[in-house]
User: Fold these one by one.
Assistant:
Number 1:
Amino acid sequence: MKISYECGPCFLRQAREAMDLSTDDEALKMEIMSEIFKFLSQNFKNGTNSNSTGSLMHNMIKEKTGCMDPYYREKIEGNQIALKYLPEVKKILAEDDSLENYVKIAIIGNILDFGAFTLDDDIESVIKSSLKKDLTRKDIAEFEDALNKYDNVLYLVDNTGEIVFDKLLLSKIKEYGVNITIAVKSEPILNDACMPEALEAGLDEYGELVEIGCGTVGYVDSQISDEFREIFNSHKFIISKGMGNYEGLTEIDLSDKDIFFLLCAKCNTISRDIGVNLHDMLLFKK
């Protein structure tokens, strides 16, 4: 997906947060912000890919501050919030164990995104209200057809915290006899899940964990490893979690694949691109 004018202030907001989490050196933050202004002045234009731009900016901050995982504490917090609501979520699933409900819970987990929300947002209240909402777009029938049709699926996870709820959907998918390959980031970026967080959450109980070969905002096709490209190309059925993966995957030809996007539309640019309202929860086939 290409950037819109609204991505500009979002990049700067993310840059400020990442720097505040990485260092207390005010002079260094001034130096880095100056470089980010220069970088954006050269790269922020029509046709620019949002994922690549954000990834380069965050990696610039990591390199300059020496802090390779700025959102370390936020990732822990994300898991804690998800675990806090897990009993309530399991109660909901006990009352209605439909595939649609499992999908809905997994999408609610996508709300735990410090790339889209500010650190001061009341994420817990958003989760509470989302539990009462229905999916705006729900290609459930097509999704279940794919689960019955294919022997293998590639599941692209998104955020730490969110993966606690992903685990529930993965358990439901296993009931269809599908072999699951679960893809995580190779290096920290924002609060995205890497191998340690995936193992801690127990995702390996439901499928084979693999790394995509890079630490990018969402999926950036030019940055994935050769090993992961083989895995990606070999799968005809893909489940993509989150906005970042949507932004990246819609940049490449997926005509030979059945791919389903599960996400909460947390920004206006994404909402407009898909044709939905802000905060809508979606399962749709692209």
Number 2:
Amino acid sequence: MSVISRVLLGLKQDRFFLALLAGLLIFSVVQPARIASYGTLVDWPTIAALTGLLLLTKGLELSGALHALGRTLVESMGTERAAALFLVATAALLSTVLTNDVALFVVVPLTLRVCTITGMPATRIVIFEALAVNAGSALTPIGNPQNIFLWQRAQVPFTDFIWHQLPLVASLMAVLLVVTAMAFKGRRLAVLAHETVSLDKRLLVVSALLYLPFLIATDMHQAGWAAAAVLVLFLVLRPRVVADLDWGLLLVFVLMFVDLRLLAGLDSVNQLMRGLGLEQPTHLYLASIGVSQLVSNVPATIALAEFSTDWRVIAYGVNVGGFGLMIGSLANLIALRMTDDPRAWKVFHLYAIPALVVATAIGYALLFL
């Protein structure tokens, strides 16, 4: 199957993409004069930064290095509690540099294999990993798409963004690790099987060495050129990385920019949003959380950025908004779909809704008290 065919097949099964496409068609019929301006509605530096990061993380993933390292470390864990803490902490750590979605694609398959050979409760661990990547990815400008967007839009230094987010992330992770330790038993692990993972050393070295220069170039607002260079290099050295990239995901983000900015331009929406008093930081914070629960935190970020330039409050709100309902973050949907457990949706909310309450209180205290 060709790359285009695979992307189209995936998009046909992606309800979120189909909803965005339907919205675009409606706007095109209602406001045909705006069709020519669609390209200007997309934040291309954000798309370029996301493309480069997806390419580099796909290279690391396909090299086999992360799976090999994770397998070795997990097999060295003595108890179920230790393994759960390691997997949750690893998911959070990876999400700070690989984005929350990519971290799940690396950790969840490993987790499911570990649970198969040890008898650990797979669904519960994956749910905690989803919560972990939502918390961990909030730390850095490259941890998730909403942070990438806010970072590019605000044009603040990489380290300033991290320093602002650090108190929130440290608090959330402390609570999450304590709850994880309480939720899993200290029984001895019995690893029943081993698997051999091939390592593509050349791909590993290239992906790892490119990572820092790409971040520096992006921090200097040269994400477009940096992403183009990474793309060309992989096309020459390892075309499979480019072929396996989630191009459909990038298209989804392009559509989100267009749809939400068209929506934000409607007079009725402007009146509604202005009626929320978003010039007040407390209102903006709570609105960021609430809108995230309705449309997911990435679209919420794009929409709210049209009404406020206070990236600090929005960053806290939309990252907290990743908890709660499963639609709050696309990472939640990815994790739950990968478990292949019909009960996962119910179990997820038993943990995620209380997590939203706690995270909201922590974020409010850090911002305003």
Number 3:
Amino acid sequence: MAPLSIALVDDYEVVVQGLAAMIRSYRERVQVVELDANADVARDVDIALYDSFANPQGDSSQVRDLVANPRIGRTIVYTWNFDSERISRAFDNGADGYISKGLSATRLVDALESVHRGDQKVHQLGDGSVRIVAGDWPGREEGLTHREAEVLALITQGLSNAEIAERSALSINSIKTHIRSCYRRIGVTTRTQAVLWGVSHGFVPDRSRQTLDHA
């Protein structure tokens, strides 16, 4: 059986590059043929994997655009957020699958194949499963966690705390906690300083498309 062709979609090139590296060892089963940072999918692919890092969730217009793209076979949301309402809204939006970012690379590839076959749409961590933090994100080398980086990315984009809560599916109190922790890690005390730090450290969304050719 030919490997599934995949387009990885997020507004940050470091995120899609990190995700591509995560599944690179499974080329006989899935081949990443396009990396799209804030750009439309331009090649025919079996799956568009929509990473929710600093992006609207599965009920967004971005996902609807992917679903409507005739070049894409199936659209899958890749996220930390698993409340039942958001899952339902993503499927109402036309998404074909909903996969946890906490899965290992092996389980992620299994899930991609399962959704493509139409076997199981939702793949998440079971009770007692180890939560994997894989891939890459801006600020990781500076010690920011995935969630802190996501919050800082949204601050850099100019979103308010309420808008960040809606975008990330976190509570306002959680947002404030992540902001305080993030500020300590990067050595700032104000939102303006945080934005300036973010702009100079790769937290402005990219716009690029990279097509990958495989032998």
